Amino acid sequence: MDVRVIGKQPVIRPCVATIGSFDGVHQGHLHVIGQVISQAQKQGLDAMIVTFSNHPRQVLRPQFATQLLTTQEEKEMLLLETGVDRVTMMEFTTKLSQMTAREFMHNILKELQVKTLLIGYDNRFGHDGKGYADYVEYGKECGIEVVECEEWGEAHSSTMVREALRAGQVEKANSILGYNYSLLGTVTSGFQNGRKIGYPTANLQIDAQKLIPQNGAYIAKTSLGYGMLNIGTRPTLHNGVQRSIEVHIFDFDGDLYGKSLKIELLQHLRGEQKFASMEALRHQLEEDEQACRRYILEHKDIH
Fold first, then answer.
1. Residues 6 or more apart from 73 whose CB is under 8 A from it?
2. Of 47, 84, 132, 258, which has the maximum CB count within 10 A?
């Protein structure tokens, strides 16, 4: 089984742990992880997260296209930033999916030296569909105390974030996440039509499994400054059905080809539109820029 341990204490030691896919690492996840860290400190043990390098849905429901909120690299970074001692990344395989909850606890969690396992209110593992009472029983058999997490008043889920992004509601998604949803990728060459009308763009190639929000124009932030992002098929230019992700960075003039760029989405400006001419498109981009700059001035202390 492919298991990789990362963090400030990558050596396997007695620990308090929790398990989950943690896609998005949103505020609901952080609530659980915070309790893991607190319990670990009380017991003088390490705090550990057990998660997967691939999403379980890719194995359990391969017919559905997986749309991830965080790539493996992004998830690792966010989980390590929580302050846990280590993160155990496991590959979710068909063999693993066929394990019962009891087998998982005896064969994996015990080997990882888990002494206390925190379970979220909706957390389930094992193909046999067991629940909290069963986990407690299996834990007693192998020396693992199973504790149910304290509930949090607010409802937060990765599904809620996905639904918000698919509707273009990035501010709602960011509120659930606790940070700005971002797209990370490599800048590739494009058609350079934006440059012809005074709005050069960097075209981003991102991980195919990453969830791309609803088509349209967005206010964005990069390490090089603020700008406006367009997601869509560029109907004015008749580029077919292939979606593109391109950002115009305000007051920036440089060559970004081949470089990595992270774009944070701040607000949805408008839906995708088809314009009668390039001049009409240029006029709309000028209006978009004005709206972006007003937003940035009004929210500069927040972002």
1. 184
2. 47
* Alpha-carbon 77 to chain mean position: 10
Residues 119 and 18 sit within 8 Å (Cβ to Cβ): yes
Q: How many CB atoms lie within 10 A of CB 62?
A: 9
Which residue, among 158, 164, 166, 163, has the nearest Cα to 231 in the 3D structure? 166
- Of 275, 125, 299, 144, residue with least CA distance to 226: 299
Q: What is the pLDDT of residues 138-181, one digit of tens each?
A: 999 999 999 998 877 567 889 999 999 999 999 999 999 999 99
Query: What is this structure's pTM?
Result: 0.88
E-assigned strand segments in 169-294: 182-188, 202-206, 216-222, 225-232, 244-249, 260-270
User: Mutual orientation of helices 170-177 and 27-43 as an angle, nearest 10°?
Assistant: 10
Question: In this structure, what token pair is assigned to residue 227?
Answer: 């700008």
* 215 phi, psi to nearest 5 deg: -60, 145
